[in-house]
Every structure is written in structure tokens, then in C-alpha cells.
Specification:
single chain; alpha/beta; 9 strands
Length: about 300
Amino acid sequence: MNDEIRRIQDVMEREAYITDRQIATSVFLATALGKPLLVEGHPGVGKTEIAKVLAQTLGADLIRLQCYEGLDATTALYEWNYQRQLLHIKLGESSTASMAEQEATLFSEAFLLKRPLLAAITHHGKPPVLLIDEVDRSDEEFEAFLLEILSDFQVTIPELGTIRAEARPTVVLTSNRTRELSEALRRRCLYLWIDYPSFEKELRIVRTKVPGLGEQLAREITGVVQALRKMRLTKHPGIAESLDWAAALVALHADHLDEEVVRETMGCFLKDDGDFQRMERELQGGALQAMASFAG
């Protein structure tokens, strides 16, 4: 088993996802046991990226359901193509088929619009990776609806009957903990918490993901971001913000940080006016050098 987990870790890193043993073990168990993997953590720490990399490493299609408040089962599962049905009715006005025969035709797969959940269940060939992203943004009613899907991987469409997955998709759910998920959902999943990375791990991520970034600048960016996470900010920068900032500095041909370049690019890693003001005070107080050399 150790060799398999090591192999998964190596494969994920070849796909430019800098991981660790805990993450690789969770991915291994999710695929080996066929259980959904619930990934929680701060925004921007790479939760969604796990599903993308997993699909790449498995050579499988990625099907994504982005959750939001008000998302309902119909939108996530299927809809009937009413326009096409109306057109079919109009073209068949002279048909001699009975009413029952016409209804059977109208409510067949030819007029079914598959949304992400049904697309994952009816996917042919290699089982896909189903990403249910930011499930905590959906309503509790929708979360309850997911329980049947995640338990039995089947859905019932009144006009067509029960449809079961020929092969279960690999499921990854992500949550930013904007609300507490139910115990029922948690019990159906393996659980993984991703914290902010250490200085060394984040430095590796920045180096790997941003071509053309100099060593000194990479260390300074990582140091500033790590220091910011120790402050009382409204929104702490995640790894995604580190990468955006690094890419911006490469585009600006910067090779080191100074107050001016930090001030001009703060919008890459800070997303709140109050945090801007806090950073400005730090810069005016001469704290940049200490922040840039922060190492844990």
C-alpha cells in the first residue's frame, strides 16, 4: 500500500499538484473504496484542483457541478428540452400515432437534457470524476437530495424509471465551510481537511506553477503571503492568490519586491478594502522586509 500511495503522490506531482502523504492517502482510499471524498479547507488551498488532477491521472472525464444557493434537483439532474418537444409536436401534427405513442416519444432520452449528476451516472466507458464544488453553498434541501445519489448512484425519472450507474463515478465534494454540512452527508464520505501549506510547500507550489519566476522573488512572495495569514485580515490569501500575484509579477518583469511594486499589485492577493488599509500601514511602517523573509 505504501508503494501505491507513493505512486499516487508522484503522479499528482507530475501533474503539477504539489501534495503530501495525507492527501495522496485520501485519494487512494477514495478510489480503492469507491467512496465520495469530502474536501474542506480555506478558500484557494487547492480543493477543486484535486478533482481536476485526479481526472487527469485516471485518464477520466471531469464532470463539474458548481453549487450555489437556490440550486435545485432539476437543474443538477435533468430537464426536458421543451422547445424541441414543441417543434416535434408541430412537425407531427399530421401523424397517425396515438396520443400514448406520441407521449412516449416526447419523454424519451432524445428529448432529455442531462445535467451534471445524470451525465455522471449515465456516462459510458471509463467512469468519470464527478466534482460537486462548494456543496456548502447549496441549500440543505439539495444536500439531502444528494444523499440518495451518493449512496446508490441511481436516480428516478418518472417518465423513464430508475437509472443506475453502470460504473460508479469517482466523486469529490468540496466545501469552504460557509455553513455546517449534515452528519448524514459526512458519514457517506471520506474526509480530508486541507490547511494552508507550510512555507516550503508553498514555495514549491509557486516555483512549479509559475514559469519564469526567479528564486528570490518566489521566496519573497511566499514569505509575504505566509506573514499575511498570521494577521487579522478579513480575507486571508490562499494559494490561488499567491499564484496570481507571482504570475502578475512575472508579467511586470519584477525580480524582487519593494514597497512600490507591492502597493501596485496588492489587488492580486488582497480582496478587501480594510485589508488594503492594513497592508498599507505595514508598508509605511517598514515591515515589508520582515514579511518577505518570513519562513514559518
